[in-house]
């Protein structure tokens, strides 16, 4: 099929779109609408920025050639960042489909899906439910504690209030990190190469980290000898063997180690029953409240998600005393 034929098929599909139809860019899922269809260009409005953009026919032809010339489809991360609406619009053509798992747009003979947003994709239409997550409950308690105390003047707070604050910060950090890792595991399968993917609050990208582990001792020494390097240059003290020697001799730890002590705060326990009681009180307060009070409490919960990132920047186990040298 020629591009000219495909182009007019696409224009016909666009003409049939409902006025309120919203499309999503692949991967980043930015929302936009088609506002005008012309012979040589398509006009869109980007929802997030309010920007009006023309999508040119010649750019669609370039994308069409790339997709049809490659049997496995065209990789989306090869497109410039501002070109994301083009494959989204092209997916309205019955012969093309976006495969987000593979990160590509492909030509298809059978039925295809489009980048049209469904009602479930609209944040305004999504029903809010209370998640069964520890981080949600702990973060709600933390927000409550932060609002009841002047945390910008920690030195003026009572000790029991500081203990409560530290405990909640520690719990939020731990549980948020667990959820963050779960989210990262899912995202990893959806991100491709080094192309950033944006959301409303930020962007992420797939990154490669190199981890090294030394090969077997015999293999390393053999390789060094073959390279003419004296093995003595890499031989040193084995920490595990030193520990074993300390266990079976009268040598003291200070004979083998330079010891430096530092004092820090560590969470020693959590009163889960008290936390649950306070949390239930907040929920009951929300359920019973009406008018301005109810709206204020609802806003508190709605703002919770956007504040978790800031709250979990706190690092537990912070050193607060001057280090002292260990005695020999």
Automatic annotation (TrEMBL):
Which residues lie within the region annotated Disordered? 107-130, 308-328
Q: Which Pfam families match?
A: DUF7983 (PF25943)
Q: Which domain of life is it from?
A: Archaea
Among InterPro entries, the record links this protein to: DUF7983
Question: Know the name of this protein?
Answer: DUF2800 domain-containing protein
